[in-house]
Amino acid sequence: MRKYSYSEAINMVVFKVKRWLEESEFKELLKIADYNGYRDGYRVFTLNVEKSLRNGYGVEDALNLLMELEAEVEGSIDDLRNAFNKYSVTLEWDSVEGFIMLHMPKTLYTGLKNVLSLVGARKSSETPDTSTYRIPPLNLDLLVRDLERLGIPVSDPAGLTRPKTLQVKPELRNVDLRDYQREALGKWVENKHRGVIALPTGSGKTLIGVAALVETGVRSLIVVYTKEQMMQWRDAILKYTNIEPSMIGLIHSEEKRPAPVTITTYQSGFRQINTLSPFFDMLIIDEVHHLPAEKFRHIAVHSIARYRMGLSATPFREDGRHEELFPLLGGVVYYKTPNDLVSMGYLARYRVVTVKTRLSGEERKAYEELRRKYWALAGSRDFKQVVEDARTDPRAREALRVHSQMRSILARAKAKIDKAVEIARSELEKGGKIIVFTQYVDQAREISERLNAYLLTGEIPTEERKRILEEFKNTDKGILVVTTVGDEGLDIPDANVGIMVSGTGSRRQFIQRLGRLLRPKPGGKEAVLYEIILEKTSEEYQARKRKNMGFDEMMNSGEGE
Predict the structure, then answer these.
(1) Which residue in 133, 244, 353, 390 could disulfide with 396, CB within 3.0 to 4.6 Å?
(2) Which residues have C-beta within 8 Å of that of residue 145, sequence separation ≥ 6?
(3) For the stretch 431-443, what's the b/e string if a residue is b when 16 or more beta carbons lie within 10 angstroms of its beta carbon?
(4) pLDDT at residue 228 above 90?
(5) Phi and psi dihedrals of 202, rounded to 5?
């Protein structure tokens, strides 16, 4: 029988059991208590909180066991609860490194060992009696739930775990969600307010995010890819909710004003998350396929937000890193393909026309020479392996440089520019509204000059971009030439014809560019996307592969090129 010191004795919680105990019941009691012997017809026990926690018994678990075995507690139940309360932990926010700091008595370690491992805790410092652990903020909610389950009190002077509700209850106005938007929001709610929603460009993903803001009613941090997207989100919140302008803050290179609803770019979010994190209960990540990049995933890891939503037309990455989104935000909880929404009448009917042309003799000669050099350097390795090996292998790095030169020859081929100009002029005569997609600024500038078309590149100032887009939006027919700046983040007005001259070759870019054409057209008019490819090159293979796969499969594929 255990001997107790005087200080322990006056703080002991004693309980006794009169009925016969099976051997298994007796052993179970010994997981939370020490046996004091048989007295006056009772088996007498003393609560041992350290042992309870070590065996995974929190205060409620211990109380349930005592109730089940008809135990009588000397004193009151509050005495038992207070005994557990002495084994409390404290949470603190490290604003420099952006971590949760957990301070706890060393006596709790055995009972919390599994929990600490589950939440990715790393020991930071210790004193003779206490230990401090550093915990990724991503896991705060999981940590608190497990501490509550074990009945371990949590001291939270910084209010990290307190609900962060908006001062005014938000409401949707001036809009009715479409069927699939309501369904997507519902699936997200069912998944405990976590997950990625994948819908085509033009399907109203931003409105789903706004509806999530109304659904939760909590302080929210919204992360977007471009400054233009920041303004689009702000405008959507103001248009479709009762949230006042003063409650919406923007954080980017030129402005830093946090507010209950804060919108920031990936770059600014990465720099500011350690400061912003404690103030927001919901994290919305737009264009979420960018998040797995090492720099940007920092935002999700160092956010304490319990509610998390990712939005993208194509969350699946060709390098397979989309799987990293699942622990950061939750899995894909809802997706619809372009064809799904076309059949529902929400997106325009479309067709893709492949137009083939050829390299000139001089271009072909240069291309073949580079191709032979590439394979001499790459050997039997596929492109993914070459990319991987380039970290340490000089030959692989040189192979990538040669590969880039090959891509440049294909992208800048004169025949492609000529064909794009020819198609654009033909479609313009039919009254078409046309977007020409290119990869390079000089190529875009040449096409724009030859067609006397609007030009949109990353070099053009923001206000000028707005003017160009507004003019193109208000014209009945016309041509807009865009570089990759048009692939994401710009609210490009409706067009019914797209012409792909050059690009990265990725399926994601193809789908994004197609999505620019899919907003419903008057009279059910069909959208057409021309892809100009060069015969007997890798472009022909990629186009054939896309065609055989189909666009619906492309949205759901993470395979490499």
Answers:
(1) 390
(2) none
(3) ebbbbbbbbbbeb
(4) no
(5) 90, 5
Give 557's pLDDT tier (boundaries 50, 70, 90).
Answer: very low
pLDDT of residue 242: 95
Q: Which among 361, 447, 359 is positioned nearest to 409, based on CA atoms?
A: 359
CA–CA dist 547, 444 (Å, integer): 26
Q: Which segments of the chain belong to CATH 3.30.70?
A: 6-80, 89-155
Q: Which of 425, 417, 465, 421 is nearest to 442 (CA)?
A: 417
What is the per-residue DSSP string for 54-94?
A: HTT--HHHHHHHHHHTT-EESS-HHHHHHHHHTS-EEEEEE
The answer to whether 91 touches 100, Cβ cutoff 8 Å, is yes
Residue 153: count of CB within 10 angstroms of its CB: 16
Q: How many CA atoms lie within 13 A of 174 on its CB side?
A: 11
Cβ count within 10 A of residue 20:
8
Say how far apart CA 346 and CA 340 lie, in whole Å.
9
Distance CA 78, CA 149 (A): 18
The pLDDT score that the predictor gives to residue 77 is 80
**H-helix or E-strand containing 35?**
strand 33-39
Beta bridge mates, 497: 434, 528
Single-letter amino acid code for the residue at 371: R
Is 391 a residue whose pLDDT tops 60?
Answer: yes
Helix (H, G, I), strand (E, B), or coil: what is residue 463?
helix
Q: Which CATH number fits domain 6-80: 3.90.1210, 3.30.70, 3.30.2450, 3.40.50?
A: 3.30.70
Query: Environment class of residue 552 by beta-carbon count within 10 Å: exposed (0-12), middle (13-18) or buried (19+)?
Result: middle
pLDDT for residue 139: 95
Tell me, what's the pLDDT at 9? 37
Taking residues 362-390, what's their average pLDDT?
A: 90
The structure tokens listed for 470 are 């507004």
Three-point CA angle 133, 135, 138, nearest 5°:
170
CATH 3.40.50.300 in the chain, residues? Answer: 179-336, 350-357+413-555
Rounded Cα gap, residues 31 and 52, in angstroms? 6
Q: From CA 64, how far away is CA 77, in angstroms rounded?
A: 12
* Other beta carbons within 10 Å of 180: 20
The residues with which 47 forms a beta bridge, in sequence order, are 33
CATH topology of domain 350-357+413-555: Rossmann fold (3.40.50)
Positive or negative, the CA dihedral 202, 206, 210, 216 is positive
CB of 83 within 8 A of CB of 49? yes
User: Distances in Å between the alpha carbon of 461 and those of 411, 451, 467, 516, 546?
Assistant: 25, 22, 10, 22, 35
Domain 179-336 annotated CATH 3.40.50.720: no
Pairing of strands 89-94, 154-155: parallel
